[in-house]
């Protein structure tokens, strides 16, 4: 039987404060989604562009709740033994060899080798068996896994339980806080979406991005942080955004701020922007598209 613990936060404002205390600056809509996921004990599916803070939310939530973070990084070909469990075959074989002289019957031998002590637990099973107050499970980039894995997830997402043929059904002692992330490299199955609360995580508005940069890179001056937030914000806006394959995410803004501090940069200029374009962009064509002339245009006062 799954134990329902009291909701850790009494309001959306409390969620906002809790996440901010761990260095994550959420907007109110995201905080509302987190609050409802906690109150209703439902998985939360976050979709959005790479680098907007989906994974970081799970990390901050685990820290805010004081729960261990269990991360399942998805990829094409992800198998059950990587996500849920596998048997320690070497230990089972040693047990069988040690028992050869005793000549137990086949049923007894099967019972002995399929005991929990021979079970190697992976993130999903660890999350279900975590002691109070439970764990935060991050199923990261679920869109990279294949459809059979999605089908397997349905039992976990809907009932916080899984079936192990040799042991039976394993139910959560405490409902884990579950966060799934997707970069939308492919569309997820509707059955997965129906079992989750959903939130699209967009690029932050300028003031929130500025707060994130200041929190993550306190060594940067206020003036430089403001320039970074304004410059990246303009990069994402039309007509400039159409010049790039992918706009920089918040993760790139923070990394750029760290790089600029390492270069002892006091203020942005076209030369330093051009020199550090490889921090903001990860595609050759995008780096080339950020020309000094474009940098100069983006750095100019908006009312000019």
UniProtKB/TrEMBL annotation:
An example of a Pfam family matching this protein is AAA_5
Give start and end of each AAA+ ATPase domain.
Answer: 40-202
> Mind telling me what this protein is named?
ATPase
Q: Name one GO molecular function term.
A: ATP hydrolysis activity
Tree of life domain: Bacteria
> Which parts form a coiled-coil structure per UniProt?
none
SMART domains, sorted: AAA
- Annotated signal sequence is none
Q: Which organism is it from?
A: Hylemonella gracilis ATCC 19624
